[in-house]
Amino acid sequence: MKKLIRIATPLIAVALMSGAPLFAHAQNNQATTSQVQDWNTPPAGTEQAQQGYRDGLQAAQLDKAAKRKIDAKSSHLYVHPPVKGTARDEYRSSFVSGYEAAVKHDSGV
Hints:
By secondary structure, the chain is mostly helical. It has 4 helices and no strands. 76% of the residues lie in helices and 0% in strands. The longest helix has 39 residues, at 2-40. The N and C termini lie far apart (58 Å).
């Protein structure tokens, strides 16, 4: 019986210690997933505002890939928004928000 306890005790300790990093890794992955969804999800609002946010995200990624100047207000969709009338201001402000969120995310801040 003493031999069984001498063998079983270290094995149980190793099993308990090896499980902890797996749980910690799973928790880190879950936190990372929620952060990813936060920055690239358009805020609640009108359809024009949500479209502006999504367009801002894409414009920032395209500007970075093409090594263009990183400035939301120099983007074609900011200067010539695809919406009419009073929705232009809402679209532009959401566009800038999306653009800045993408730039901030890409810089790792």
